[in-house]
């Protein structure tokens, strides 16, 4: 697990570096900038990590299939990897789809969420009154375990929480700049024409 954490930290450190910003705007420089070269290398190591995990899950599923009827060691039958392995036809590009998806979730999803929570905790230490007010709102809406489950669709029931999250994301430095994109081909969006390559 620490190996994965080190890889993720390495990838994110390079993404946030000044060299990456330069490479984003001058793609011809990519091969010359050490941080970008390292980012690529780590990206491939990360892919190998997920490929290995995928293989372990596949083997485990095959073993369970063979032992059907006997007690099998089933760590988590609902994990994402297993869901797709059970329906491989949904992977349009084979294993690579799942490997890239795992990378998106861990780097794009997990680390961003974690960094946002860290900032929130830091802000709470500086603003205990906000923490107290938020705690009150949550306890009022969910006084008992049986009071229901919080979800994205019920978030409007906790307006102060929404405001706090907005404020944390406004103040926090989660991703210092946007991810660069370019249009693969010319397309129209409403009245705007985007030229291919721009
Ligand atoms: C507080 C949490 C999050 C923050 C602050 C955040 C922030 C961002 C930002 C700033 C971008 C770049 C947008 C752009 O330049 O167009 C981005 C893109 C992206 N995020 Fe998040 N994100 C968060 C959570 C997540 C989660 C939970 C997932 C998936 C499970 C995710 C997956 C992605 C992906 C795949 C992209 C790339 C989209 C593209 O290439 O157009 N993010 N995110």
Automatic annotation (TrEMBL):
The identity of this protein, by name, is: Cytochrome P450
Protein's organism: Pristionchus entomophagus
Q: Name one GO molecular function term.
A: iron ion binding
Q: Which UniProt keywords apply?
A: Iron, Metal-binding, Monooxygenase, Oxidoreductase
Give the top-rank taxon of the lineage listed in the UniProt record for this protein: Eukaryota
Which coenzymes or cofactors are required? heme
Q: Please state the span of the N-terminal signal peptide per the UniProt entry.
A: none
What is the similarity comment for this entry?
Answer: Belongs to the cytochrome P450 family.
Keyword field contains Cell membrane: no
Spell out the Gene3D superfamilies in the cross-references.
Cytochrome P450
């Amino acid at each position: 697990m620490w190996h994965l954490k080190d890889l993720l930290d390495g990838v994110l450190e390079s993404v946030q570096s000044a060299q990456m910003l330069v490479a984003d705007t001058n793609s011809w420089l990519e091969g010359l900038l050490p941080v970008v070269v390292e980012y690529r290398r780590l990206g491939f190591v990360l892919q190998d990590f997920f490929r290995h995990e995928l293989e372990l899950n596949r083997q485990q599923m095959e073993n369970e299939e063979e032992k059907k009827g006997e007690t099998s060691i089933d760590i988590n039958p609902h994990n994402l990897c297993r869901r797709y392995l059970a329906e491989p036809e949904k992977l349009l590009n084979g294993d690579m789809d799942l490997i890239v998806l795992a990378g998106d979730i861990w780097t794009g999803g997990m680390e961003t969420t974690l960094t946002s929570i860290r900032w929130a905790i830091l802000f709470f230490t500086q603003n205990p009154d906000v923490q107290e007010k938020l705690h009150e709102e949550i306890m009022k809406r969910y006084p008992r375990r049986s009071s229901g489950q919080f979800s994205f669709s019920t978030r409007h029931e906790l307006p102060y929480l929404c405001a706090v999250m907005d404020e944390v994301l406004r103040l926090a430095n989660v991703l210092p700049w946007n991810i660069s994109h370019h249009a693969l081909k010319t397309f129209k969006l409403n009245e705007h024409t985007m030229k291919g390559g721009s």
